[in-house]
Amino acid sequence: MKKYDIIIVGGGLAGLTAAIDSKLKGHTVLVIEKKAYPHHKVCGEYVSNEVLPYLNSLGIFLDKYGAMNINTMQFSTVAGDAVSTHLPLGGVGISRYAFDNILYKKATNLGVKFCFQSALSIQFENAQFEVATDQKGIYTSSIVIGAYGKRSTLDKQLKRDFIQHKSAWLAVKAHYKYAFPSNLVALHNFKGGYGGLSKVESGAVNFCYLANYADFQKEKNIDNFNKNVVSKNPFLASFLKNAEPLFEEPLTIAQISFNSKKAVESEVLMCGDTAGLIHPLCGNGMSMAIHAAKIASELIHKFLADKNYSRIQLNEDYQKEWNFTFRQRLWVGRRVQSILMNQTLSNVALSTAVKSPQILRTLIERTHGKPIQI
After folding, report:
1. Tens of pLDDT along 82-91?
2. Which residues of 39-49 are buried (b: 16+ CB within 10 A; e: fewer)?
3. Shortest CA distance to 192 belongs to which of 212, 172, 173, 206?
4. pLDDT score at 201
5. Where are the alpha helices (DSSP H) in 112-188?
6. What's the alpha-carbon Rg for the chain, to the nearest Å?
7. Fewer CB atoms < 10 Å away: N or C end of the chain?
């Protein structure tokens, strides 16, 4: 089959959730994803409880798969000054290796089709999309959702503004065997970045950190950076000394951009990190991806079912609802980023946060929504 109601480019959390929701609404769906499941991804692997009611409505219950209930956050400065606070909503810890595969199996059982190839281009003409892949596949549809992650060659093909600018951020992630409380997510600051620790369904501890690329380059490699920069924080020094790596090599991703993006580009509805990336300190990227999939799926269903609902109105409504739901969160995330990039402001802000757990709770509340009402 080459023609579908909906083509979703990218099979991460946003793409898979949108595929499941759209299939349950009765539409034919193709997901184009370059890698077969399961596979690990660079991710903090913490899901806010904001989206659990919605996932449950799709028949996805993460507690059945051993997801860790997380209700406490710990934060520390480079010097090791620390504070802990109760998370207003809480969340669960689950690896992308497991979570994506759960969604993939759910989607295939529903009849969603998958094409494990790389999408090279997305063209829109005469009210139809045409998506070409690296294996010379050509697929058409009425709707395309872009859910291909933080950055892609597709961003250049679609002439998106943000892709023209270099980014200062690099992320590193790996799993470890380490004694760590299952109810805790910890964020530990180091010069030019910070690292997050939390336990996932396998019992492994996920350590994912964001670093300034210029600082990283000075150390040449991950081992040197961990030893000379990350380990200046005593919490992270203890972790790296005593934890047993479970990956042969850490996963990395460079050129992570937190610049503003449009939620609709060249008639494509963007979801998840493709539409906008929140600073990981805010801890809500996974939930935002899932929530955006819900918004897109509902509006697309209206467009496909109602001939009086135009594509122009669809695009306007999606951009408007996306902004209403996420713009403030992204704004707060960018303010956090600008503070962390300034060493003087960073030291003052982090020291203040350690002295007042209420500041941390306020930051969390400003970057998280309320549980989705179904």
Report:
1. 888 888 889 9
2. ebbbbbbbbbb
3. 212
4. 98
5. 153-157
6. 20
7. N
